[in-house]
């Protein structure tokens, strides 16, 4: 009887014991710096937001400066509402520049003051606009009233669909406005500078953002008119689209129109298309009280867009921009109204970002497309409570953990090199079923240049659970030096984490100046320890660490 009971207890313990045993064995990752897999294209150095007037707010300028500083290349910034009518005040999912109005005789009045202030802020920091031609000025709207919305989180999303969301009531005036804007930009910033920008038409015309009886044909006409105007002002300017919410029939028909359709503006066949852009989002939800991310949906949407580009041989090699690439779709929906968004303050957003950006290289390579950018649609929100769970990079001027992933990526340059591991998920597996079950995704992205190797390692799972994680062993081969200087940066509950620091303070609604200073320091990218000198053996360095669940490490070796 005792032997039988012991056997039952042993059987019940088996899964747990196996898990405990596995956790004591290091997860092994091998990096081969001699095997280049592709360029370390800075697809991550692209950011966007709905509210353009946050750009010139003090916290907006601070954050833009930090974003510019972390990147070794110019950062591209995409913002909505650059043509919207209004006084330049900001609100959730709203902004305006009032660049166009009409006098009593219906003649155009152009005012570049506010949009210049926005673009000046970018240019002063070495950043570049992904300049969005939208939305519709009130004087050109087909249904001007009501024009401004006053949406708040928790109210129906469709309430934002007011007069700014229509095609123009006069395509000639619409085209002339765009021509004058580009012409003014060249005069203000110089031809060479504006040639380095990207111009785009509208946002998600296949979704809520365009009100028309036939949205496809309305958008095609808007695009053709805008492209003709941009090229008339600057023939070497780059314009593209369609920035659809999903990569489906609308996008497919748009690509066919640009390649083979009749141009609404010129009557000729075809329309300029210098890059292709679409959006891809994940789908988090709450399962048994725990947030579960939807990276599988995110990857499927990415792959669908890449597949549509791959479908057309004429588009081989064309630059592709994922205009919004995020865990879900509403940056301004906080966790109070949308509890599935509770991931945004802590390390889950950071590990998700690291794991997803790394796989975007693989997804694009599988389809043979030229991915140059994946816009992270998150910035900052003014006049909001601390850590309210918006999808942002900073709260009240304090950087959140996710921003430190981009600081890590900014330290990676040159070429990507091969990584193999015994507990890594590949992109196809995540696309099929996400990262679920007992095993977490422990993997790495690695890059090298002439005297530097950088390895970013994460421990990711779709479920918002934190534990001690696993020991990890990195074998970094192909180092042409007998010793290297190693820095080890970390995002976890103790490092690079202002949210954890805020909670340790008792989650103050109004932190004191001293607490704000402490939070800002906690929001910086931190090292796990002092720099060390590591010897190599036959060109290989071994680095060991304990990597908690949801943590991200960056190991840099300089020689």
TrEMBL record:
<keyword id="KW-0378">Hydrolase</keyword>
<dbReference type="InterPro" id="IPR051923">
    <property type="entry name" value="Glycosyl_Hydrolase_39"/>
</dbReference>
<dbReference type="InterPro" id="IPR000514">
    <property type="entry name" value="Glyco_hydro_39"/>
</dbReference>
<comment type="similarity">
    <text>Belongs to the glycosyl hydrolase 39 family.</text>
</comment>
<feature type="signal peptide">
    <location>
        <begin position="1"/>
        <end position="18"/>
    </location>
</feature>
<protein>
    <recommendedName>
        <fullName>Glycosyl hydrolases family 39 N-terminal catalytic domain-containing protein</fullName>
    </recommendedName>
</protein>
<keyword id="KW-0732">Signal</keyword>
<dbReference type="InterPro" id="IPR049166">
    <property type="entry name" value="GH39_cat"/>
</dbReference>
<dbReference type="Pfam" id="PF01229">
    <property type="entry name" value="Glyco_hydro_39"/>
</dbReference>
<keyword id="KW-0326">Glycosidase</keyword>
<feature type="domain" description="Glycosyl hydrolases family 39 N-terminal catalytic">
    <location>
        <begin position="97"/>
        <end position="524"/>
    </location>
</feature>
<dbReference type="InterPro" id="IPR017853">
    <property type="entry name" value="GH"/>
</dbReference>
């Amino acid at each position: 009887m005792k032997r039988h009971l012991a056997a039952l207890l042993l059987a019940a313990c088996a899964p747990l014991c196996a898990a405990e045993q596995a956790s004591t064995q290091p997860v092994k990752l091998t990096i081969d710096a001699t095997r280049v897999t592709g360029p370390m294209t800075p697809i991550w150095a692209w950011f966007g937001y709905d509210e353009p007037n946050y750009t010139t707010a003090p916290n907006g300028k601070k954050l833009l400066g930090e974003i510019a500083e972390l990147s070794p290349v110019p950062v591209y910034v995409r913002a909505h509402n650059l043509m919207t009518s209004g006084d330049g005040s900001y609100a959730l999912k709203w902004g305006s520049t009032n660049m166009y109005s009409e006098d009593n005789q219906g003649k155009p009045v152009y005012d570049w003051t506010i949009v210049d202030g926005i673009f000046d802020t970018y240019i002063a920091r070495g950043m570049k606009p992904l300049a969005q031609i939208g939305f519709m000025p009130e004087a050109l709207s087909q249904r001007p009233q009501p024009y401004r919305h006053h949406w708040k989180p928790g109210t129906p999303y469709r309430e934002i669909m007011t007069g700014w969301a229509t095609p123009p009531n006069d395509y000639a005036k619409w085209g002339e406005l765009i021509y004058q804007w580009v012409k003014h930009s060249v005069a203000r910033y110089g031809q060479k500078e504006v040639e380095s920008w990207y111009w785009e038409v509208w946002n998600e015309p296949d979704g809520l953002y365009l009100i028309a009886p036939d949205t496809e044909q309305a958008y095609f006409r808007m695009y053709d008119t805008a492209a003709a105007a941009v090229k008339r002002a600057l023939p070497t300017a780059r314009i593209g689209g369609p920035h659809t919410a999903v990569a489906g029939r609308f996008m497919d028909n748009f690509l066919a129109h640009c390649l083979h359709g009749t141009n609404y503006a010129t009557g000729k066949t075809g329309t300029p298309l210098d890059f292709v852009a679409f959006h891809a989002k994940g789908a988090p939800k709450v399962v048994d009280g725990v947030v579960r991310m939807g990276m599988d949906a995110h990857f499927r949407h990415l792959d669908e867009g890449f597949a549509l580009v791959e479908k057309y041989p004429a588009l081989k090699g064309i630059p592709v921009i994922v205009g919004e690439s995020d865990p879900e779709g509403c940056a301004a929906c906080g966790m109070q109204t949308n509890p599935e968004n509770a991931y945004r303050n802590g390390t889950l957003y950071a590990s998700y970002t690291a794991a997803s950006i790394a796989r975007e290289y693989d997804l694009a390579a599988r389809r043979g497309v030229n991915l140059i950018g994946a816009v992270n649609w998150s910035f900052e929100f003014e006049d909001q409570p601390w850590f309210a769970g918006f999808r942002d990079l900073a709260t009240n001027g304090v950087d959140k953990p996710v921003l430190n992933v981009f600081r890590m990526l900014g330290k990676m340059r040159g070429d990507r090199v091969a990584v193999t591991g015994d507990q890594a998920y590949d992109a196809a597996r995540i696309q099929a079923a996400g990262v679920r079950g007992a095993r977490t995704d422990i993997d790495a992205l690695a890059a090298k240049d002439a005297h530097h190797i950088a390895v970013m390692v994460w421990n990711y799972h779709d479920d918002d659970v934190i534990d001690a994680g696993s020991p990890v062993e990195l074998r970094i081969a192909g180092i042409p030096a007998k010793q290297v200087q190693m820095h080890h940066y970390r995002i976890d509950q103790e490092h690079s984490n202002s949210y954890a620091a805020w909670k340790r303070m008792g989650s103050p609604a109004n932190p004191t100046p001293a607490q704000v200073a402490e939070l800002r320091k906690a929001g910086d990218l931190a090292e796990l320890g002092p720099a060390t000198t590591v010897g190599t053996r036959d060109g290989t360095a071994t680095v060991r660490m304990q990597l908690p669940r949801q943590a991200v490490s960056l190991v840099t070796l300089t020689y």
